[in-house]
Amino acid sequence: MSNLDSGNRNVGRDPTEGVGGAMLGIGALGLLSFFAYSAAAVFAASVIAGAAVILVIALTAIIAAVVYRKQRRVTVSLVLLGLSALWAALGGIIVFKTHSLAFTPTAWVLNALFAAALLSVWSTINALLKALAALFAFALFIATVVLPRPLGGDGPLDTAEEWSIDVEVKDDHGEPLQSALVFCGAVTKWDYGLKLDEALIRKTDRHGRIPTWKFKEDPRFKIVICDASKNANDGNAGYPPVSQLVVSIAGGGEYKLDFALVENPHPDIAFLELDLSGDYKQPWFTLQFELWAGEDSAQPFQTKAWNELRESGFAIPAATATQDLRLRYHYEGPGGEGLVPPYNEFRTIHLGAIEPGTRKRLSLQIPDRDR
């Protein structure tokens, strides 16, 4: 009778029960492997981001266990905690493998999910978990704002913005400063200087401006540093560099920077700066400048061709600058269309004395056929 009852009990057992459990175990193992593969992709791009993913998953699991032990049922809080952990676990696949979403918006979604889950369980967890969770949420937010985006983290909804900076440089008299050297670049807040690439330096035009400086940078807490200066030559005593900062937490944007550079003192020298315009830039011209001092001078004390005056001028010693100065030029260029003699032009411009330590600017239209 005992054997009969034992046989009857075995008749009702589902023969597929063991197979189902094995398949469930294999599925769980496969899911864990998938999550591990995703986390590994984040670690490969950034150790910090990978560590953050592991901490999010671990912290949400601990909080979920505490909440479930108290409530004994599935609540909205548990769902939010699960979504936070799931989003963190899938981040590597979403961002670095399929590029379905860029790193920055993915990180902000994780911040929002974790903050919402934390708020929903705030009254349930103890003080220690509150402190740990709040500190980690704050650290996660700061890291998203400050740290550089990992390589390969581009994709749809990328919040990287373009910087657009207009720079205008003037001297200490408010006059546009031509040929000033300008360089702009982005650095993170903990950098102490700007890595200068001479190939990227731009020079201001005759209006003291450069073409709009445009570049694209990761939208984190970036500081754009723009430096402006001018090297000394025969036209100036040099303008020491001046730096200006543009700070943007969100990154990017359009900005306007105005520089006012102060020239180095030059009490023993006066400068003559020429602003030249006209047709003389053609390759078949002759354009020679002579600087004369005094009525009785037998020869000029300085002579320069126009190409020597590019971005430069005449540096005149103080003893000579106080005399009666004259500028004479000789221009020779094409006389017109066809086979016609070259056009010659001689002009003498009276300058007078130039006070040492100052400069005189002279605008010339060459050739001046109307005179």
Number of strands: 14
Q: How many H/I helices?
A: 7
Secondary-structure content class? alpha+beta
Mean pLDDT, all residues: 84
| Strand line-up of the largest beta sheet | 3-2-5-6
Give the topology string: H per helix, E per strand: HHHHHHEEEEEEEEEEEHEEE
- Biggest β-sheet, characterized? 4 strands, antiparallel
Overall structural domain count: 3
Helix content: 25-40%
- How far apart, in Å, are the first and last alpha carbons? 137 Å
Estimate the strand proportion.
25-35%
Radius of gyration: 37 Å
Shape descriptor reads: elongated
Show unreliable segments.
none
Q: Could you give a quick summary of the protein structure above?
A:
By secondary structure, the protein is of the alpha+beta class.
Report on the structure:
- With 371 residues, this protein is of the alpha+beta class.
- The chain has 7 helices and 14 strands.
- The chain has helices at 2-11, 17-45, 47-71, 76-97, 103-121, 127-146, 318-321; strands spanning 161-170, 181-188, 202-203, 213-217, 222-230, 239-248, 253-260, 269-278, 286-293, 302-305, 313-317, 325-333, 343-352, 359-366.
List keywords for this structure.
Immunoglobulin-like, 14 strands, alpha+beta, 3 domains, four-stranded antiparallel β-sheet, 7 helices
